[in-house]
């Protein structure tokens, strides 16, 4: 097991790299990317921002990390999300773009005085991946605070309350539980078998919970070995939380190197930045230690913001 300080810095950097690589190609069709595959940072395309610019995936990750540096406080968490949304905090250039509808509505509820854990959307249409993109800091917070980690009721409550600030539908809560458990298990044991066991461990837990049992079937593909061997044209790389997890784990299971997994993820198209970001983060754990492509690092914007946020977290009592 590598030191959590090393892995935390690596993971936040990986989030930003996958995000920035995919930003110019968000909503692009897969067929176009098959003809002209992505492997370098490109600027001034989908959102007309410079090459290496990251989006909400990295901003919410940094905001979450900064908040958790002060402890687990959902009011502080949402206050920082609101500052990001309205004023461009935690962004490379002081502006937000590509904000998900469910997340923006949750922030407006918080601004109106709703309790943080009640701000998330609860309809079936509120199952986008806006909560998944910010789970990694919480995973490291739990990892540091837990002695003898187990995916149990206490841990799950932390994950669900944190997720519910923007996404409260049971399906989104399950997805966050799966991803957080996988992150922690990969820190302990970085291999694909451990990753798949963590998925099963999470789903087995939810099968035993009356409030979630009916939702577990939506994630059946994650336990189907045939699904993970399918060609890419069967993979739906949409912002829907189930499609996002399916895409991420498909990329990881069909790659043996960090670079291959990340480029495979962004070249699925559609929600390229979020799927690229989450895949990059998990791949940095699965294939640790990782040497990030130097040309990606050279063009990555806001690197000092990442360093400051991680350094502050590691100096706190919570990481």
From TrEMBL:
It comes from the Bacteria. Gene3D superfamilies: ADP-ribosylation/Crystallin J1. Keywords: Hydrolase. Pfam families: ADP_ribosyl_GH. InterPro entries: ADP-ribosylglycohydrolase, Ribosyl_crysJ1, Ribosyl_crysJ1_sf. Belongs to the ADP-ribosylglycohydrolase family. This is ADP-ribosylglycohydrolase. It comes from Lentilactobacillus fungorum.
